[in-house]
Specification:
The complex is a heterodimer.
Chain A (H helix, E strand, L loop, with lengths): L4 E3 L4 H11 L3 E4 L3 H8 L7 E4 L9 E4 L3 E5 L4 H6 L1 H6 L1 H8 L4 H6 L2 H7 L7 H6 L3 E6 L2 E6 L4 E3 L2 E2 L6 E7 L6 E8 L10 E10 L4 E10 L6 E2 L1 H7 L6 H14 L10 H23 L6 H8 L5
Helix pairs in contact in A: 5-12, 9-10, 10-11
Chain B lengths: L15 H5 L15 E7 L5 E7 L1 H5 L3 E6 L23 E2 L5 E7 L2 H8 L3 E6 L6 H5 L25 E9 L2 H7 L2 E9 L11 E6 L5 E5 L4 H12 L6 E5 L16 H10 L3 E4 L2 H6 L7 E10 L2 E14 L21 E10 L13 H19 L3 H8 L18 H12 L12 E13 L5 E7 L5 E5 L7 H13 L6 E3 L18 H28 L6 E4 L2 E4 L2 E7 H8 L8 E6 L6 E13 L5 E11 L6 H20 L31 E6 L20 H14 L10 H8 L10 H11 L1
Parallel strand pairs in B: 1-12, 10-11, 14-15, 18-19, 25-26
Antiparallel strand pairs in B: 1-5, 2-4, 2-6, 3-5, 7-15, 8-13, 9-10, 9-12, 13-14, 16-24, 17-18, 17-23, 20-21, 21-22, 24-25
The chains are: A alpha+beta, B alpha+beta.
Bound molecules: flavin-adenine dinucleotide.
Chain lengths: ~300, ~775
């Protein structure tokens, strides 16, 4: 295990200047759950490690009906899972957090790390995409905003420029009569990377008959997590029927471009996209119509192996 | 059941405190003065000639103390069974990706690792074969062209890469098939499996001032390591001392010489103690796992009874016959009495990591095939699967495959217990349209393990007794052995000290594996305790001037039966013994083998199948096993549950994946090789049946291995019950289940006719 110099900035600006100073020799870390694995196996060999943990305020989670949800980059996955407001307003995000690794890892892993790691299988990513998350990025030139959808460029590749840091994610407040769910398919009931993950957010109108807005995001079936835009479009403004949901699910399946890997074949993953899209839509619609769905039920639904 | 004072009571493990407080010393914990770290360079090629190895740059790296290659070892083949087919380190050729080609000892691991990168090996690629069925074909690429020259190679049939063939025949199979009402044929495949021990292999070696070699190892078989290590180093066994360390799981993977020879030779070369600790990745890429097995079964049924079975199994052994690949051969009959049979098990070389042992190697594969096949037959015949099994089950007096008569046993009791507890037959339903529920059963059979066992018990002046055996503690076996000694001697558990051991201290003992410790080693302990008791009584009789028959030994005393207050404590006797004619009291026993004693169990699984994704979840698991007597019920239940947990992993998620072209392990980590977690486990229910065995200590039977056999078949049968699809390929992954639900052809293809032809050609 190669040695490195350990740096502890106390402000974002300090962190940025450390990154500027050491360039590609430096790596930023948050919960280090991805970092430690890759450092131990020699995939990452930074000479400088810049630990963000001591920058105050970066772990803030707050909600206001006007601005929606603000998530500091250091908000733990465990906090997403347990936060009452996330459970209430953004159930798909709480469910995604509940499906993530095990409690010990969730206590360390950060939402910013999950986003910046940019794994196509990152569990919080489909839900964040489906809730139209915006990224606040801080860098040498100051601060800029970017829709999360434009953040992912490929496996492990993001729109972050040298010395830029993801500071915060913002999720707009959901429309009234909205329901959402994330389902992760993995053969093991915990500590498993998702083979397919689907998040659906549905907002209804006309007493729950008609879809006002729908967002569907797919994980682990393309080089980046993706929004299933054409599938969403099929729902918007339409009266909800079981046949329609089936067709939407088929469209999502069509959009998926998964590869064969050590976990599953691409063909299987495509099949699962349809199943999970339909199920997340059905549940989201139930919730949007006001059905009570206790969090423990959502958790069990979210980890498909634990059904 | 007799009244026991120590047996049949749950005792916490004698070493529990050290283990849970982290104080137990494992091989990786060793820190000897001047100790160096060892790292291994392995082959990146599937099959290649080694043109040259240049270690000069590595040797010059500061901190590097010694570098060795295959040519530094004596030019001797060794093997794990009878067949001597491998070098400890590659010499002229490499046969799989991951084969050791050089080793470095350096001041620390990082330097050793760096040195590996400076070693230049020039390879010339040779053709490789990865699939065992391809390797069987005539004209296939040959893995070992010098196979016929290997010591221990006995025949040449079945194909160019067949290195072993086990067979068993009885009766007239052809006639029985001719007269059958029905004939059934199925082919099954079971996957490659890692043993999943928590502690990756670790060992250390030091040359002592007198020239002897001391080796610390994480091993189940210190005497096997001693013999094999002496062999590959060209030393006599008396110059090697093996100290077995705490074992962090083995399951058969640590029965034999593993990597001990590398630190040993580096210690000899450098003059320093050297330690090697595998990474988890190395535990997957270098440590012999189980490889895939193909099994074809053909069965004749007449009047509802099985009259004949023909079985062909092909065990992939990888590059070397690292372990008996096919102890499964006789188990193609399962727990059934079948009068006519023809059973063949082939071991086939391929360019992959060589096979190791795992919890009754081969039997779990056979059980999956046989118990799935039994279910298929029952359904096709329209009979209840459990009834069909009950009718055909082995009974007392039936001749077992090996020829012995089946002694009294509790097979029927285990079937009955499961039937009653679950209320079978029954049909499970689900109100969720996306899922279906089902229940499946499987019978498992095995035998109690035999082999050389020794024990000695000495009585200390304070009335405690010291128990010395050569057996490494496995799954709490030390505790159970202590219980046997305590019961037999009439002392309390706290009075038994289980001595530390190494190959100098304790006489030869077979390895801790093969379900032999309680049955055989336990028998030796019981006999040694009886010997001790006899000597204690003799001494007391002498002192009391009474006949030995008038005395009893219990409650930590030897006393006069008619006047219990008269007598001596064991402490008094031990003190008296120091000046007695016979001297200090020590009881000993040794045995080489034990009679055939079968072990039977009945397993049942309830599952729920997600029809959309193919995901299977086990919701309830029940097993009933005939244990004879439960020496330590808590430990027995732990063993039963542990077996089921491993079996569920084998059934549902675990599979070593090899690159089909190169044989490289594609998932060498616990993130991609999916061992189940606590959340994946149902509540496992255990029923202990107690039909004492005629020969085991206090009637005990082996407990250890069979619980792992049942889950794959029980779960496959439950899936069939739930959704009507039959999966003959392990694991029963969501992808396979969904493919079957979608009606895709999932049948396993294997050319049995070619094997029959090859055998006929041999005459
Ligand atoms: C055992 C185990 C199980 C896991 N299971 C799951 C799972 O089920 N689902 C899942 O999605 N993931 C899983 N992971 C992966 C990992 O935990 C997540 O990706 C996690 O969210 C990463 O967060 P972190 O804070 O630990 O990131 P770190 O490891 O600290 O960093 C990850 C990457 O992001 C960069 N980075 C971090 N924060 C910032 C920032 N604010 N700005 C710019 N760059 C940044 C780092 O430089 C690094 O490249 C698992 C990991 C382990 C070890």
């Amino acid at each position: 295990m190669p040695r490195f110099e350990y740096l502890e900035p106390h402000t974002l600006r300090q962190a940025v200047s450390m990154l500027q100073q050491h360039g590609s020799h430096a790596r930023i870390v948050a919960g280090s759950t991805d970092f430690l694995v890759r450092w131990r196996t020699g995939v990452w060999k930074p000479q400088y490690v810049v630990n963000l943990q001591h920058v105050p305020g970066l772990d803030r989670l707050s909600y206001s009906p006007r601005n929606g949800l603000r998530l500091g980059a250091l908000v733990r996955v465990r906090a997403l899972e347990t936060s009452p407001v996330v459970r209430q307003r953004y159930p798909a995000l709480a469910a995604a957090a509940a499906s993530f690794a095990g409690v010990q890892v969730r206590n360390l892993a950060t939402v910013g790390g999950n986003v910046c790691n940019a794994s196509p299988a990152g569990d919080t990513l489909p839900s964040l995409l489906a809730f139209d998350a915006q990224c606040r990025i801080v860098g040498p030139q100051g601060e800029r905003w970017l829709p999360l959808e434009q953040f992912f460029l490929g496996p492990g590749r993001t729109a972050l420029q040298p010395a830029e840091i993801l500071a915060e994610l913002r999720l707009p407040p959901p429309l009234p009569n909205t329901g959402s769910l994330y389902i992760k398919h993995s053969p093991r009931g915990a500590m498993d990377i998702s083979y397919v993950g689907v998040a659906s957010v549905v907002s209804l109108q006309d007493r729950g008959r008609v879809c006002r807005d729908a967002k569907i995001a797919l994980g682990a079936v393309a080089p980046t997590p993706i929004r299933a835009a054409s599938a969403e479009a099929m729902l918007r403004g339409q009266t909800i029927t079981p046949e329609l949901l089936k067709r939407v699910a088929a469209e999502a399946q069509r959009l998926a471009r998964p590869i064969d890997d050590v976990r599953a074949t691409g063909a299987y993953r495509k099949d699962i996209v349809a199943v999970l899209t339909q199920r997340t839509l059905e549940r989201a619609i139930e919730m949007a119509r006001g059905a009570e769905m206790p969090f423990e039920v959502q958790r069990r639904l979210a980890v498909q192996a634990a059904f | 059941m007799p009244e026991y004072t120590v047996l049949e009571h749950s005792h916490p493990r004698v070493d529990a405190w050290e283990k849970v407080t982290g104080q137990a010393t494992y091989a990786a914990d060793l820190h000897l003065p001047g100790m160096l770290a060892c790292k291994l360079l392995t082959s990146p090629r599937s099959h290649a000639r080694i043109v040259s190895i240049d270690t000069s740059r590595a040797e010059k790296l500061p901190g590097v103390r010694a570098v060795i290659t295959g040519k530094d070892f004596p030019n001797t083949h060794f093997g794990s069974g009878g067949l001597k087919d491998r070098y400890i380190m590659a010499r002229d050729e490499v046969y799989y990706i991951g084969e050791p080609v050089a080793a470095v000892a350096a001041d620390d691991e990082m330097t050793a690792q760096e040195a590996l990168e400076l070693i230049r090996v020039e390879y010339q690629d040779l053709p490789a074969v990865v699939s065992p069925l391809d390797a069987l074909k005539s004209g296939a690429t040959v893995v070992h062209s010098d196979l016929p020259k290997f010591e221990g190679y006995g025949f040449a049939a079945g194909g160019p890469n067949v290195c072993t063939l086990l067979d068993a025949d009885r009766g007239d199979v052809e006639q029985a098939f001719h007269e059958a009402d029905h004939i059934f044929e199925d082919t099954f495949r079971s996957q490659g499996i890692n043993q999943g021990f928590l502690e990756p292999m670790a060992c250390a070696a030091r040359v002592e001032p007198n020239g002897r070699l001391t080796v610390w190892a994480s091993t189940q078989g210190p005497y096997q390591v001693r013999a094999q290590l002496a062999g590959v180093l060209g030393m006599t066994i008396s110059n090697v001392k093996v100290i077995p360390m705490e074992l962090g799981g083995g399951f058969g993977a640590k029965l034999r010489l593993a990597f001990e020879a590398f630190p040993a030779l580096l210690a000899i070369k450098s003059g320093h103690p050297v330690k090697l600790v595998n990474t988890r990745e190395e535990a997957f890429t270098m440590n012999g796992p189980r490889l895939p097995t193909h099994i074809h079964l053909k069965t004749a049924v007449k009047d509802g009874r099985i009259t004949a079975r023909e079985a062909h199994s092909v065990f992939d052994v990888g590059a070397y016959l690292g372990a008996g690949p096919n102890s499964g051969v006789g188990h193609a009959l399962g727990a059934y009495h079948i009068p006519n049979f023809k059973l063949r098990s082939y071991g086939v070389y391929t360019n992959k990591l060589y096979v190791g042992s795992y919890r009754a190697s081969g039997v779990a594969d056979m059980t999956f095939a046989v118990e799935s096949h039994m279910d298929i037959i029952a359904h096709k015949l329209g009979v209840d699967p459990l009834d069909f099994r009950t009718i055909n089950a082995v009974k007392e007096g039936d001749q077992a495959v090996g020829g012995a008569r089946t002694p009294r046993n509790g097979l029927q009791e285990t079937i009955q217990a499961v039937k009653e507890r679950l209320g079978l037959p029954k049909k499970l339903t689900s109100d969720n349209p996306n899922e279906a529920r089902g229940v499946g059963v499987a019978l498992c059979e095995w035998r109690s393990g035999s082999g050389p066992s020794t024990a000695s018990i000495s009585v200390n002046e304070d009335g405690t007794v010291s128990l010395l055996t050569g057996s490494v503690d496995i799954s709490g076996s030390d505790t159970s052995l202590a219980q046997i000694a305590a019961e037999a001697l009439g002392v309390k558990m706290e009075q038994v000290i289980v001595a530390e051991r190494d190959t100098d201290l304790a006489p030869f003992t077979g390895p801790s594996g093969g379900s032999r410790i309680i049955y055989s080693q336990g028998k030796a302990v019981q006999m040694a305790a009886e010997d001790t008791r006899k000597k204690l009584i003799a001494l007391a009789a002498e002192r009391l001037k009474l006949s030995p028959e008038a005395l009893s030994c219990a409650g930590g005393r030897v006393y006069v039966q008619d006047n219990p207050p008269q007598g001596f404590t064991l402490g008094q006797l031990a003190r008296q013994s120091l000046t007695s004619k016979g001297g200090p009291i020590i009881g000993t026993a040794a045995l080489s083998s034990m009679p055939y004693t079968p072990v039977f169990c009945t397993h049942a699984a309830e599952v729920v199948v997600d029809k959309g994704t193919g995901q299977v979840r086990v919701t309830r698991y029940l097993q009933a096993q005939d244990v004879g007597v439960a020496i330590n019920p808590m430990s027995v239940e732990g063993q039963l549950e542990g077996g089921v947990v491993q079996g569920i992993g084998r059934a549902l998620t675990e599979e070593i994946q090899w690159d089909p072209n190169t044989g490289k392990v594609r998932n060498p980590s616990l993130a991609t090789y999916l061992m189940p977690l606590a959340v994946d486990m149902p509540q496992v229910e255990n029923i202990l049946i107690r039909v004492p065995s005629p020969d085991g200590p206090f009637g005990a039977r082996a407990v250890a291995e069979p619980p792992g056999f049942g889950p794959p078949a029980a779960i496959a049968n439950a899936i069939y019950d739930a959704v009507g699809v039959r999966i003959k390929d392990l694991p029963l992954s969501p992808e396979r289940v969904l493919a079957a639900l979608q009606g895709k052809d999932t049948e396993i293809k294997m050319d049995v006719e070619a094997l029959r032809r090859a055998e006929a050609g041999r005459g």
